[in-house]
Specification:
- InterPro entries: Arm-DNA-bind_5.
- There is one protein chain.
- The chain has about 70 residues and is an alpha+beta fold.
- It has one helix and five strands; from the N terminus they run E-E-E-E-E-H.
- It has a three-stranded antiparallel sheet with strand order 1-2-3, with no helix packed on it. The protein has a two-stranded antiparallel ribbon with strand order 4-5.
- A hairpin with a 2-residue loop joins strand 2 and strand 3.
Length: about 70
């Protein structure tokens, strides 16, 4: 039996806080059923790469958040 699993990282722009940062959410899809949860990480929307589903750049903040998402 083949099981299809998909993981997507995205930011929720509708939940921008006072500091103009958005939470990073995780969407997991298993056999066409999906659930979402927060990664408890926040990022400025301008630093988010939609195509790569990661933080842009190579600074310490970007490396830390991207390694957290990879883990």
């Amino acid at each position: 039996m083949n099981t299809t699993i998909s993981v997507l990282f995205y930011i929720k722009r509708s939940k921008t806080n006072n500091e103009d940062v958005c939470p990073i959410y995780v969407r997991v899809t298993v056999q066409a059923k999906r659930f979402e949860f927060s990664s408890n990480k926040f990022i400025n929307p301008e630093k988010w790469s939609v195509e790569g589903s990661k933080v842009k750049g190579t600074n310490e903040e970007a490396r830390t958040i991207n390694s957290h998402l990879d883990y």
